[in-house]
Amino acid sequence: MADYTNEIKKRRTFAIISHPDAGKTTLTEKLLLYGGAINLAGSVKGKKTAKHAVSDWMEIEKQRGISVTSSVMQFNYDGYCINILDTPGHQDFSEDTYRTLMAADSAVMVIDASKGVEAQTKKLFKVCTMRGIPIFTFINKMDREANDTFELLDEIENVLGIQTCPVNWPIGCGKNFKGVYDRNTNTITKFTAANNGQKAVDRVEVELGSEELDSLIGTELHEKLSEEIELLDGASSEFDIEQVRAGKLTPVFFGSALTNFGVETFLQHFLEMTTSPLPRKAHEGIVDPLKEDFSAFVFKIQANMNKAHRDRIAFMRICSGKFEAGMEVNHVQGGKKMKLLQPQQMMAQERKIVEEAYAGDIIGVFDPGIFSIGDTICMPNMKVEYEGIPTFAPEHFARVRQMDTMKRKQFIKGISQIAQEGAIQIFQEFNTGMEEIIVGVVGVLQFDVLKFRLESEYGVDIRLEPLPYEHIRWIENKDIDVAKLSVTSDTKKIKDLKDNSLLIFTHSWSINTVLDRNEGLVLSEFGRS
Ligand code: G4P
Question: 25 among the known binding-site residues?
Fold first, then answer.
């Protein structure tokens, strides 16, 4: 077998999703610790600074820097080559977060045991299910007071609509947290908060029903555990790897990332259960990752990372074959043959130039302003164009007022470029041109970023007037006369840059009212980029 196929088969590319503060950063650090990518957990990113940045311009810059250096982290563990994709979950939550999930083959969902399923978990989960990728659940912070375990599982099943299958089961929580019971091996891994989780902990294993366990966790907890396991064996879904891979069943693990408890067990099971790079849909059909020819698609563009050079980096996910620095490729949308410049990869905090990379890997390349989100890059002999990336529904809208009308050209250039990177979406009033621009964003921080960047990079001063709309729907009917649609008073008709018609609503209930009033109207939550 060619060496490149082995390289591809050992790749695991996944994203970690969570609501802010559930423990995503902490879990990522601990995973890197096992891979030897960092020596001491606690150095993935300057979290404190990232967290407090709201509208301080310097902080925004810093934050953008941080989200770049940690966009993807690669490390080796137990014969696997692991790529972790970062999905920023804090104030800089944006479309980027969603798009990153387009580049992953599976997702790890971190849930705070005392909070259960939270708002952002739901949003991110929805994108994962849209792609049908496997989802693994890590219920974190068991060293703190936690919700009832059965209730947590019920919540995941009812709120998110995915079946659960606990791989292990917690014994107590908070001060009484004693460890987890492994349902496969029928053994207990005892909780020892050694060294505050800085180093990998040793495992102590004893069997259920043994006297040793009685003395270890006490008769009361031992009895409770036996009852729970009996109940669980009768009630929970059977483990079925096909269901897991179809994204219909989530294996559930319990642990405490901070104290590094349950992390390695999780990692080992996860690596066994998850898949190597998945085939990708292209317009021409499904592309096998083991195909020899290199192909990739752009899922993220980050501009002006270094102000002095005004550089732009396009991040692409390799979908098939092997990439070699200096090779000639075809940029399908641009219709041009080219060499990818300065290909680079992230290793924890460092960026390094790559000589070769394989399907499943993410590389960043220098972008002289030619790539757009969703573009395909492939070997010149290949005929492939990957399916576009959906445009996610913005939830915040503002009207943009330009302060200095003399700078119209710079303004249009700046706002269009920033929109091209996918940080914001721009719309026009229905029936007008570019004179009235409405900006839509997924996370409010993007408004600050837009204002700041227009000022610092394009010398244009703007004022943003917040609009009350929160819901957006693309009109799917091509033959409809939008002017004649009957809408409610809190609904606005707008157009995107590709002249597609849309409706924005203040209240969600107006969506149904508008659908009721206009027979045959078809609305969709996602646009296509
Ligand atoms: P995030 O990336 O999902 O936002 O979460 P992050 O890892 O930053 O964790 C949020 C807070 O929860 C942090 O505390 C972190 O130390 C804590 N935490 C994470 N995992 C566990 C766990 O298993 N048990 C307990 N008890 N706490 C956990 P912080 O005080 O907000 O920040 P820091 O000062 O510790 O950095």
Answer: yes
